[in-house]
Structure prediction request, 302 residues.
Amino acid sequence: MGPTASGKTGIAVELVQRLPLEIISVDSALVYRHMNIGTAKPDAATLAIAPHHLIDIIEPTERYSAAQFRHDALRLMASITARGKIPLLVGGTMLYFKALREGLSDLPQADAEVRAELDARAAEIGWPAMHAELARVDPETAARLQPTDPQRIQRALEVYELTGEPMSLLMAREAPEPLLYRTLPIGLMPSDRAVLHQRIADRFDAMLAQGLIAEVKWLREHYALNALMPAMRCVGYRQTWQYLEGEFDYDALRDKGLAATRQLAKRQMTWLRGMGDAVVMDCLDTRLTERVGEAVKGFLNS
Prediction:
């Protein structure tokens, strides 16, 4: 695991060619079909030599949660181990790693009707007002959410609508299910953040050159999307959507896309630093593949 542009996919592809591993993607953007350029999805040649589970599993109009990820990942991990192989979980969605390792509270499943009602109300009064509404019924959850986080505000209000109780109370009450696997968490972190930022810039420029704008145009033409949907709030896609809406010009698209990606990397590194048991390695180390391979072999041999 590690920040965007830290080289996670490259390391994973090397490992599966040397060891009896199967890759499970831990990425909240790679789950979407037809979102290839802006997510830096592995290309067909890479997937041919190193297949990834949990890529291209839902449409861009659908939602995918940490709870769904945990369910799918555990199912795949059981299947992989039954075949005599080892699951290799690879990605940068740190909330998914946390959900997998620590479990989740037993909250109600999503309800399409309730969500539609909440979306309609938000369209009338705006998400900051919805956040204020959440603060009245669940101040503890509202305090940890930004007024500009519609997905989580909606989920907290949905739980309250379905149960009549604050989500914070339900989460405190339920004991999460533990992960019944031994794990080796390996974190890729840059020794020089400026180099990571240059990698981010190079990759975002490559995405623009490869047709990120055309990709988002195609998605808008083929799906009933809006700017509040999780797929279109992914880094790069949100800024391209705003560009296509005429909110700013091409130069601003690039600047805002880079800034958002750097912020994402910063949040990922903060999560990683909070995982006290992670084996942290320098993603800029020229011997990184060898070092990771040695750590994995040692873990498997133990």
Observations:
- The first strand starts at residue 21 and ends at 25.
- The longest helix spans residues 250-273.
- The chain has two domains: 8-104+178-301, 112-173.
- The chain has 14 helices and five strands.
